[in-house]
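Side project, low priority. Logging it here so it doesn't get lost.
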Amino acid sequence: SQAGLNVLTGKRYGVVTKETRNLAQGLYGATAEPITKEVLNLVLGDVPQIDHRPADDLEPEMESAKEEIGDLAESPEDVLSYVMFPQPAKKFLEWRREGGGPERELVAAVVGAIAVKDRPAASRAAPAAPSANGAAPGAAWRQFGRMRQMR
């Protein structure tokens, strides 16, 4: 993408992508060949290159994450999942704490289907007419249930 920007602007490194700047600064590690001083000046300007491991600049997160997630986490893997994916991991850990069973809507649908199947044919309601938007009756309910199952 940097080469494309060079062509579009008509000037080498007139517009520099974030990735190109990070590469020149050393945030992705050392390049196979050193970058020339001329290119470094164009890309970085006054920003210095780093000469250490970039991850050493990060603050440790595990202890604070353990405190945040509390007793929902049963293992270090749970804490790591929470650090990497906070919202879905928390929802999953809460779901697991509640028993990890099927969704309430799914259970209600299965019970309803069994009840309708076991009911005598004479007592069953007539089929519903299509809705105003042309969708089959109950389509929205089924779609919602399917979306919930896919979580």
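Brief comment: The radius of gyration is 29 Å.
Revisit when time allows.
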